[in-house]
Amino acid sequence: MARRAVGGTGMRAWALAGLVVLAAGLLSGCGPVKPHRLLSQPPAPAQTGAPLPFTQVDRPVDLAKFDSDPCSLLTKDQAAAVVADPPNDIRANRRATLPAFGCSWTNHGGALFEALKPVQNPSTLAELSVSPLKKDGELDPWTETSIAGLPAVVYHVFRHTYECSVSVQVTHDQMLTFDIQGKDLPGSYWDNDRCGGLAKMAEFVIGNLRQS
């Protein structure tokens, strides 16, 4: 008579149980899968230059595309570089109310990135530099620079350091203003350099306007 191996069934059961525990441990160790970023590396900072006189606009920008379709002035890759990466949940909304027209972009209800064309005073850097807010120190710190070869200013409305604005003189009688409103920047590369993110946004938008 063949002798039955003692404990064979029990050992197989213990082995299966061990595999189940091991698999569960591996799965729990993985945690939630992070969204796959569109960009392979963080974007390079905008190329800013020395300050220019506010009236020195050697290459005026044609604003026809900004007037007709401002929300098209960031490509998908550019929105990922500025607003949030991955850009799948970015929402663009056209702004058509005074005192400025343009577009805003946001990710998961976070802060707004805006590209605006002011149509009421101040609508130029010269007007902004003598505005009541500037005279009262409500735009400090105020830093003059240049972006895409155009006069530009970086400032903080009401001195809120978590918000920032960048205004660029794009024609002889018109500036564009780029700003962040709000604190949370989910998925953004610029949470610790918000003004740098706006300078990059300005560089993208102006570059796209010049190519349109």
UniProtKB/TrEMBL annotation:
Pfam families: DUF3558
UniProt superkingdom: Bacteria
The protein's name in its UniProt record: DUF3558 domain-containing protein
